[in-house]
Amino acid sequence: MRKRLFYSVFSAFVLVYALLLIPSLVFAVCGTASNCEQYCNNPCEGGLGYNPPSGTLCICPPTSATNVETVLENVTNYIFWIATAITPVLIIIGAFFFMASGGEYEKITRAKHIITYTVIGYTIILLSRGLVYILRDILGAP
After folding, report:
1. pTM above 0.85?
2. Would residue 54 count as lying in a domain?
C-alpha cells in the first residue's frame, strides 16, 4: 500500500514538474559560439546566450557570472556534469556489490542502497537544474 502511494505521488510530481519545465526550455539563443570563451563570457541581446561550439563541452566557471541567475545556472551545470560522470560509476559499483554478495542479506541491502541513493541523488540534481529555468521564467529574467 505504501509503495503504491509513493509511486502515485512520485508520478504526479514528475508529471507536474514536466508540465512546468517544458515551456521554460523554449528560449531564444543568438547562434553558435566559435569557442568556449565566447560561449561563457559574451551574452547576447534578446536571448539567453550562445549555443556551445559543436563537438565541444564548455563548462563555464561560476566566477565569470555577472548576476545571481547566471551564478546559480553555472553552479548547477558544474554539479550536473560531475554527477553525470559519477552516476554510472556508482551504479556499476552497486551492481558489482550485488553480484559479489553471495546471497548475504547485508551485502545485498548495501548494493540496493548504493543504487537507490545514486538514482535519487541524480534525480534531485536533474530537478535542481530544471528549477533554475523555472525560477528564471517566474522572475522574468532573460
Report:
1. no
2. yes
The answer to whether residue 15 sits within a structural domain is no
- Ramachandran quadrant class, 140 (left: phi over 0; alpha: psi -120 to 50; beta: rest): left
Q: What is the domain extent for residue 52?
A: 20-139
Q: How many CB atoms neighbour CB 117 within 10 A?
A: 12
Q: What are phi and psi of 67, to 5 degrees?
A: -140, 170
Provide the strand spans (E) within the chain: none
Number of domains in the chain: 1
Handedness of CA 7, 101, 117, 123 (dihedral sign): negative
- Among residues 103, 80, 100, 81, which one has the least CA distance to residue 92? 100
Report which DSSP code applies to 102: T
d(CA 67, CA 97): 44
Answer for the pair 118, 104: CB distance below 8 angstroms, yes or no.
no
Give tens-digit pLDDT for 45-58.
Answer: 544 566 667 777 77
